[in-house]
Design a protein that fits this description.
The chain is of the alpha+beta class. About 60% of the residues lie in helices and about 15% in strands. The protein is built from 6 helices and 5 strands. Helix 1 crosses helix 3.
Length: about 180
Amino acid sequence: MNLTKDQKKQKSQDLASEITASGTLFFTAYQGLKFVDMAELRKQLAPAGAKFRVERNAIVDHAIRQANIEGADEKLFQGPTAIAVGGDIAAVAKTLVDFQKKFAALKLRACYSDGVWYNEDQVKQLATIGTKEENLSKLAGALYNAVAQSAQVLQAPIRDFAYVIKALEDKQQGK
């Protein structure tokens, strides 16, 4: 589909505002993936809050500049490129890494999130840290455990005192 210059500018501006709003952008090479495979990947990324699509390199490059993102490697804009925009960075990274294990044609190139660029190896490390929800539930469990232990420690002197009183009472009654 041939786009006019104005359509390209508009598409670039829309992508720039989407990148700015989400703060997360993954670059992948998809050459060799079938359409149904890409549709499956889109379906898997949806729960993580990311949108996966193929964009022209010039549009993505222009959108990155409009979003005031610096430090992009020019190699990212060579060859067919698909991007995943938005979502929880750890959840999206995990989904992409898991999908790459099934379909070797998907190649992770880089990730940009909140002012930091990540290479392929760092994206794979991000995939191991767990999602925001998983980490929050672990934190809640740890906090609950700490409060429960504190409550037990505070109740122990009262409980022990009650046992002493009961033992004295039993002794006086001759039990």
